[in-house]
Amino acid sequence: MDNKSMADHLEEGSPPADPKADLDAAQSATSFDEVEEKRIIRKIDWHIVPVLGVLYLMSFIDRSNIGNAKIAGMDEDLDLDGMRYNTAVTVFFVTYSLFEVPSNIMLKLWRPSVWIAVICFSWGLVMTLMGLVNSYEGLVIARIFLGVAEAGFFPAAAYLLTLWYKRFEVQTRMAIFYAAASLAGAFSGLLAFAIENMDGVGGLAAWKWIFILEGLVPVVISFTLYWLLADSPENARFLTEDERRFAASRLYTETGYTEQSNSDRIQMKYIKAAFADWKTWVAVVCFWSCSIGIYGFTATAPTAIKQLGYTSANAQLMTIPIYTFVVITTIGVATWSDRPDLPGVTYFFLFLIAGGLFCPFTSIVTLIGNNLAPSSKRAVGLAILASVGNMGGICGSNIYLARQAPQYPVGYGTCLGACVAGIVAAIVLRIAYASENKRKAALLRDEGEEAVRARYSEQELVDLGDKSPFFEYTL
After folding, report:
1. How many whole angstroms separate alpha carbon 146 and alpha carbon 127?
2. Least reliable range by pLDDT among 8-17, 231-240, 337-346, 413-422
3. What percentage of the chain reaches a pLDDT higher than 70?
4. What are the distances in angstroms from CA 63 to CA 68, 84, 124, 347, 354?
5. Which residue blocks in 268-311 are alpha helix, DSSP H?
6. Is position 337 within any domain?
7. Residue ranges of region Disordered (predicted)?
8. In which domain, by residue range, is 361 found?
9. Domain presence at residue 5
10. Which residues, other chains included, contact 265 with Cβ-Cβ below 8 Å and sequence gap of 6+?
11. What is the per-residue DSSP string for 356-367?
């Protein structure tokens, strides 16, 4: 960036994208038959989705392993009585939420592969240092910085997926990517079980080794992302020149209109448009219906299982089947959607709770990602959704009260209310999107597509984004 301030840069923007050039490039792309097209998409799948999935796996492990550390001795060593544990869990979400939008703005100003590498290194470093804390106050400070470091990764990854896939292809890939969050619960329990055997090694308690070892992994991986993670189809090293043109063209020509180009530059007007879109704020309610329960569940499940009468080590292991079930149901539901005080009983219901909390999440994020344009507005909108939506973690971290164990009436009651609100919000969004589609279709039918198009320049259509009469919302 030059010597201008960021505010000036955002207000004036970089030179506007040339939608006509994008369309010309798309039309000149090499044609591939259906078999070759599937081969190229599989090639993209193997180079993009697993990398993002592994990163999200590590991210979710590092933000939620505090629950495993708690039953591994952290609560006694740091004297986490009363609401102290809840506070340590909560402060993460404060900074995590505040820094989501600025992070995705930086993503648009920098290359995604570089910015995501910075995020990955930062959260790994903070997590590693968390293993050195010796007081409650130190734990809280470390969690605050972990929120700053992790902020932006999820909306950045979700945005990156929209640069590679058509709108009705995104949700399945989003589900595979997000399933890593579910898998994190299983991995975290397994790793915690193994690491507990390191109690006393190097003079450190087992719970400290959980933080240190699970923090070093993302630090190491961050140095590989510049080469592993491709920013867009246009500069993917793993594709041939013809394949790059084809991968880009299939997105430009998805509906035949250039306003869906992803090459727009970040400008203040797009940021304002993202904040002004009421549908994103309604979707936040749907997000809350998942995030309140998810973060409350991940922070409490190991303790809840231990309270059923199991040892700490066995409680770590018994979280694994629950999260494995979540992985299967999350991917299954998303794939289908894209193609239109008895210990045993209590443990069984944990499966149903986890499955219900995780499955709708990918649909919410995909719905908003598909229905925001141009790409700068989408980047900011997804960050807003994640930012405000993840404030549900603040609620979820404080409704499962230790004194109410094992029934947790406040925790489960709050989650039920949030789920009902989420259902209502989802209905409102569907009605709103369908109504807008009908209005646009009527306009084009009554006045004719050519007459409507004649009113706008190509750049004006880019600026209109999803407000363009030619943009169809997905339901």
Report:
1. 7
2. 8-17
3. 76
4. 11, 17, 10, 23, 17
5. 268-276, 278-306
6. yes
7. 1-23
8. 30-262+270-467
9. no
10. 13, 14, 15, 16, 17, 108, 376
11. HHHHHHHHHHHH
**What 3-state class would DSSP assign to 6?**
helix
pLDDT in tens, 352-399: 555 566 667 778 888 888 899 888 899 899 889 888 887 887 787 777
Rounded alpha-carbon distances, angstroms, from residue 66 to 129, 194, 302, 402, 455: 14, 16, 10, 15, 57
User: Is residue 6, in this structure, part of any structural domain at all?
Assistant: no
The amino acid sitting at 389 is G
Secondary element (H or E) of residue 387: helix 375-389
Whether 348 contacts 308, CB under 8 Å = no
Taking Cα atoms as reference points, which of 468, 249, 281 lies closest to residue 374?
A: 468
Where residue 289 sits, what CATH number does that domain have? 1.20.1250.20
Q: What DSSP string describes 337-354?
A: HH----HHHHHHHHHHHH
**Alpha helices in 151-252, H assignment, sequence order:** 153-162, 170-195, 206-222, 225-228, 241-252
pLDDT at 137 over 90: yes
In a domain, 472, yes or no: no
**Averaged confidence pLDDT in the chain:** 80
Residues 358-370: pLDDT tens digits? 667 778 888 888 8
The alpha-helical segments, DSSP class H, found in 100-164 are 100-109, 112-130, 136-150, 153-162
For residue 417, the model assigns a pLDDT of 86
Q: How many domains does the chain have?
A: 1
Q: How far is the C-alpha of 190 from the C-alpha of 416, rounded, in Å?
A: 29
Contact status, residue 191 vs residue 69, Cβ threshold 8 Å: no
Question: 3-state DSSP: the chain helix, strand, coil percent, rounded to 5?
Answer: 80, 0, 20
> How far apart, in Å, do the first and last CA atoms of the chain sit?
39
